[in-house]
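Would you mind writing out a protein's amino acid sequence and the numbers that encode its backbone to help me picture the idea?
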Amino acid sequence: MRNVTTQHTCNKRWMCRRQKSRRVDARSKRKQSIARADAASTPNTDVPSEAGRASYRPNSYKDLVEDAIRATCTALERGYNRVEVDYPSLPNAADSYSGASDDYVDANVQQAIAAGRWLRETKGWRSHIVVPDNEELNRSYNMFKSALELEDGISMGSLTGKVQGFGAAAWEELSFLFGAVGRIDEMVLQKAEEASKEADVFFFINASTIELPEVESYVDRIVGDRPALLWNMELDTLRSDLGLFGFPSKDVHYRFLSQFLPAFYIRQRDYSKSVSVAPFLINYSGALFREFPGPWQVMLRQDGGLLACVAEDKERLTLFDFKEELLKAMGLDTEEKGSTLEFLRRGYKTATWWEEDIKQESSSNW
């Protein structure tokens, strides 16, 4: 069986059978993006457009971070103070968890610092980066100490903060004695506590599903009405654990996570489909994309990594709908509507619980 991995060959064989999308047809945008491929490699420096992008391909992670924080600022200026930013932290990874955990953690810290620097230079805002616990604070602070001390208006703290109570203090001391963690300077914790009072915006990074209730508590107790950003926390991955044994309940999503508006969102996926004629196996990939205030967009990956828009919608698309739009753009939705083959391809379940149980949500922002 021959495996074809380039979109060029797929397009020649299958684009002739493309059907009209039930959503807003974006084929004209795609033609424009291909014609402007070279220009698309230069990131947009203007305020994000409500019309979205015809194509997307940043030159570097610096450009990617700036696009993300620019969309975030647009959301904040329009009154949203709970914002989500989600894109692959590591290069050449479909999602952040594809890499080593330390690489993922360090990349998020580095990119949050870069975003905080941009906010300080352009808006004059002070940023406070919040990691899950004092152990991670100790590691990240020591690793990025020079950057944090040189950057005015960027600080780092933890959800744990100063240890309260004899039992917690004794546990931390035992952890240090047995080498589980390093000792963190009390001055660092004191500075973090003071900085949290003066911060204009908070970045929450690297939290796990277990720690989501602590994030919620921190937002309620300390952040208040100030902006809170869930930065590259892979919320869809964390949501999938909610309600399972040993994890927080689904109420965390209904009550808390549903408040967060996705201001900048890139979720990449790779798919393949078997066909009865050569080349027999078609590989295709794309990304669900959103840059506030633009719509949700289905992006098909072209040669060279360019993401070209093939469909869009004002409402958030499920991953099932996203895949269906890619199939239509490729001309691969060949099964007869209502047929057994179509059912077998689609399956019975076409949405996750958080995409279905919308009546219980405290907000529809997500």
Notes: DSSP finds 15 helices and twelve strands in the chain. The CA atoms of residues 290 and 337 lie 30 Å apart.
